[in-house]
Write a structure and sequence with these properties.
The chain has ten helices and no strands. The chain is an all-alpha fold. It has one domain. 33% of the residues are buried.
């Protein structure tokens, strides 16, 4: 994982990474780092066309063989290092999640729902696949994606319906429940208690 990019993540994301099993920790961190980079592209998009070009660059890089990817981008170097852990479908879904929002001053319910579905698929479903769980993690993934978007872009997210879903109890899925609790206005101490105990 790229240390500088991890430090750019919010503390709850760093806590979730710390609770991921060591064999997939770097891949999980990288998914969150790429997600964060795409959020920055949207945040800084003065010209939607330029932002679209940037996203197209990332899509092309993802689809290229490791040896053909552009040099000098730490996140792509990290992607080369995690090998096959992150499926191309997850990277494409993550790019599509953020592309849906480009060029829109306000995010409608339809846009937000499409964004959340793809973002949940890219991160929560991929993580669940690594853990081999039969539980569907997309419902809590959608909650996290919706609330995280509202927190990041409060002036652009229209009032929209927020789903409800129970958090998983399994220790292996604790990183996902940490992320979801973190956007439910849990205090730092409450989040740490949950990370330690699952309560």
């Amino acid at each position: 994982m790229t240390t500088d990019a991890v430090l750019e993540l919010v503390p709850p994301a760093r806590l979730a990474i710390a609770y991921a099993p060591s064999n997939i920790r770097s891949a999980f961190a990288l998914l969150l780092q790429i997600d964060n980079r795409f959020a920055e592209i949207l945040r800084n998009a003065r010209e939607p066309m330029i932002a679209q070009i940037k996203m197209a660059w990332w899509r092309e890089a993802f689809a290229s063989p490791a040896e053909a990817r552009p040099k000098g981008e730490p996140l792509l170097q990290a992607l080369n290092e995690v090998g096959e852990y992150i499926p191309l479908s997850a990277l494409e879904a993550l790019a599509a999640a953020w592309e849906h929002l480009l060029g829109n001053e306000r995010f409608s319910q339809e846009l937000v729902d499409a964004h959340a579905e793809l973002r949940a698929e890219a991160i929560f479903l991929t993580y669940a696949g690594w853990m081999g769980t039969v539980q569907d993690m997309r419902p809590i993934g959608r909650i996290w994606a919706l609330e995280a978007l509202r927190i990041a872009f409060p002036e652009r997210v229209a009032d929209c319906n927020m789903p409800h879903a129970p958090l998983p109890k399994a220790r292996a899925l604790r990183p996902l429940s940490i992320l979801t609790m973190s956007v439910r206005t849990a205090s730092g101490s409450r989040l740490i208690l949950h990370a330690l105990t699952g309560i």
